[in-house]
Amino acid sequence: MPITDLLERNSKLYGDETALVEINPEIQEEQRVTWKEYELIQPTSSAPYRREISWSIFDEKANRVANMLLGRGIRKGQKVAILLMNCLEWLPIYFGILKAGAIAVPLNFRYTSDEIEYCLKLAEADVLFFGPEFVGRMETIVPNLKKDHLLFFVGDVCPPWAEDYHRATANCSSQAPKVLIDDEDKAAIYYSSGTTGFPKAILLKHQALSQSARMEAAHHETTHDDVFLCIPPLYHTGAKMHWFGSLFTGSKAVLLKGNSPKAVFDAASQECCTIVWLLVPWAQDILAALDRGEMKLENYRLDQWRLMHIGAQPVPPSLIKRWMEYFPHHKYDTNYGLSESTGPGCVHLGMDNIHKVGAIGVPGYGWKIKIVDELNQKVKPGDVGELCVKGPGVMVCYYHNEEATNEVLEDGWLHTGDMARQDEEGFIFLVDRKKDVIISGGENLYPVQIEAFLAAMPKIHDVAVIGLPDPRLGEIATAIIQVKDGMTCTEEEVEKFCMDLPRYKRPRKIIFAPVPRNATGKIEKPKLREQYCGVRLVEAQNNA
To answer: pLDDT-derived band of residue 45, with 50, 70 and 90 as boundaries?
Structure first.
């Protein structure tokens, strides 16, 4: 079933119910806007900027986008890009593209002008929807785009070289276009993180999107009464595919701009959110704010919050232990996945397996896994090898990159590039990225294991471990440590804490500095290696 069928079903079954809410706590307004016959609803006092949209209006707006694109000559299989911050327009535009039979191409909002141009040309995109935050970046590349490239501005003051999205769609039909779509049709191109150069284009089918919706609802027992708080960027498969659980059940979701602890708690409290997906840094920030007494649980309505889950990067067990001290009633899940596997969930812990915190879990709904050695042979339980996954969410290919595709796809199996082991109960533990393994004096060191150990040190807010060149050992483990606000930490304190680690796993260098993470929470290790390669350690007592 194409993913667009779920939207049309929700419009029929739950037409007047709220589908999406957008909240921007940085803007205070005197009136709240609801896309329901376009009226303004006056609140009793000023409040954070808030808009909402019903399922029927969501579907109608998607139909207007689709009919506008078809009217402009866009046909099935052509590519249409989206460059927007999270907003209420994002998902109706995305589904309008799909309803037209076109292929949606979400772009990372952190892309530079060069990266935007590169990704548009690699995907052969004919259309781009973009927001006001990107006008400056777009101005520099507009002359390099083909003359018939359609540019639609989603905002208030449209630049002269683009068309206003609202005007372009206002008079288009709100009826569903007569475009036949099936599971085997191409649906979307998502881009890899691009940590080793320009990103690769990942081509997905409608089947992959629909599978992720069923899987998300199954993994988290999502019902029509749930309310999902979505904070990460919608251009990423992680946020989008977690929201697909709301789409599958016709339940409400809240798009929150900003991830401060107060903003998260305010939104969860005011919108009665039951499911919240966090990245590790955001969970760390919430715990730190609670520890400092900046926020008090009794000031918020959070009893309905039933599930906290984390994905996108390894989760230190110490973090979840501390979380459960504040929220003992919470269910917890962690989700593992790649954009090449249509986002999160090809492996997940499961809400009833909190005793296995530290594992990424078991094969997800509809998925198979295997762990193999360098000869592609399965390893024994407990041994480390490369994690491979197989299921209906595996990508078609890296678009226009046959060589890279052949490196990771084999007989339907996706080689993830992640090193893992499986215990005797079948739970999978992520050891590290294959390319991040440190070989020191002939021993394989897995940074994730060392990071998880250091994360339990009370003074440490965040930590990354990388390998740096060493003339004798080849590489040595180096810990980049971000200290909690208001605290100081010394190298000697860290070394003392690490005495419980086997000697060969102890960091040989310690650097006190911020730990950079990308928009999806992953540590930017290539940036750290570039920054600190050959660095001379300075004795430091640093307040990060």
So the answer is: very low
Backbone angles phi, psi at 364, to 5 degrees: -75, 180
pLDDT given for residue 44 in this prediction = 41
Q: Do 358 and 476 sit in the same domain of this protein?
A: no
Taking the CA atoms of residue 255, residue 261, residue 262 and residue 263 in that order, the dihedral angle to the nearest 10 degrees is -10
Alpha carbons 364 and 288: distance in angstroms, whole number: 32
Angle (CA) 241-242-246 rounded to 5° is: 105
CATH of the domain at 367: 2.30.38.10
The C-alpha R_g of the chain, in whole angstroms, comes to 24
- The predicted pLDDT at position 418 comes to 86
Tell me how far apart the terminal alpha carbons of the chain are, to the nearest angstrom. 50
pLDDT digits (tens, 9 = 90+) for 65-80: 999 999 999 999 999 9
Same-domain status, 29 and 143: yes
Are 64 and 154 within one domain? yes
Query: Residue 430: pLDDT above 90?
Result: no
pLDDT per residue as tens digits for the range 368-424: 999 999 899 999 999 989 999 999 999 999 999 999 999 999 999 999 988 899 999
**Count of alpha carbons within 13 angstroms of residue 433, beta-carbon side:** 16
The tokens for 405 are: 């595709």
- 502 within some domain: yes
Same domain, 379 and 455: no
415/451 same-domain check: no
Cα 528 to Cα 515: distance, rounded to the nearest angstrom = 8
- What distance in Å separates the CA atoms of residue 64 and residue 45, rounded to the nearest whole number? 34
Residues 18, 130, single domain; the answer is: yes
User: Among 422, 334, 416, 343, which Cα is nearest to 378's?
Assistant: 422
Residue 447: closest CA among 339, 533, 529, 350: 529
> What is the 8-class DSSP label of residue 255?
E
In tens, the pLDDT along 450-487 reads 888 898 899 999 999 988 887 667 678 899 999 998 89
Per the CB < 8 A criterion, the answer to whether 310 and 348 are in contact is: no
Q: Which domain holds residue 88?
A: 3-258
pLDDT tier at 504, thresholds 50, 70, 90: confident
Residue 24 to residue 257: CA distance in whole angstroms: 5
Give the orientation angle of helix 280-291 with respect to helix 261-270, to 10 degrees.
90
Q: Which residues contact 196 (CB under 8 A, 6 or more apart)?
A: 435, 526
Task: Annotate 114-148 with three-state secondary structure.
Answer: HHHHHHHHHHCEEEEEECHHHHHHHHHHHHHCCCC
The yes-or-no verdict on residue 497 having pLDDT over 80 is yes
pTM equals 0.82
Please say whether the beta carbons of 469 and 533 come within 8 A: yes
Number of domains the chain is built from: 3
Kindly report the CATH number assigned to the domain that includes residue 497: 3.30.300.30
Q: Using CA atoms, how far apart are residues 322 and 317, in angstroms rounded to an integer?
A: 9
Whether residues 364 and 496 fall in one domain: no
